[in-house]
Amino acid sequence: MKAEAGFAVRPVDPLVDAAAWGRLRVALWPDEAGVDAPRELRAALQPASGACVLLAVSVDGEAIGFAEARRRVDYVNGTGSSPVGFLEGWYVAPAWRGRGVGRALVTGVEAWTRAIGCDELASDALLGNVPSHAAHLGCGFEETERVVYFRKRL
User: Fold this and answer.
1) Are the C-beta atoms of 22 and 35 separated by less than 8 Å?
2) Mean pLDDT of successive 10-residue segments in the chain (154 residues)?
3) Which H or E run contains 22?
4) I want to staple 64 with a disulfide (CB 3.0 to 4.6 A). Which of 2, 13, 96, 113 is the partner?
5) Cβ atoms of 72 and 84 closer than 8 Å
6) Whether the Cβ atoms of residue 53 and residue 60 lie closer than 8 Å to each other
């Protein structure tokens, strides 16, 4: 774990980091019940899921961000190959934004994506999440398309 600019990025340790990682997941997905539950955390780390989970930690040991990525073999909007790495979740604590933490997490996910033999890394963000759009663009992503999903209760 090499500390740069007051933080380091490393793989999550489920035995040591579960509570802190869970708190960060709740901050990213506040409307999704149970994202910090032990079962959900274990599921996110299952080797069969082709997962990469990285944690950004301050030099004081505080968890300040995370990235979760998966290997996806289904079609991923805007990509031209399969499988691809997919950034499923990416969060940096507000006090640490703009200091390179998000970029360092994405760089780690990019290395993992290449290591598993993928040529593309994809991600998504809600249409109204303009700060996330800017963060993605700042890390070298390009916007490929916009989609609005619909449903009808039957």
Assistant:
1) yes
2) 76 91 95 90 75 95 96 91 95 95 97 95 94 96 91 94
3) helix 14-28
4) 96
5) yes
6) no
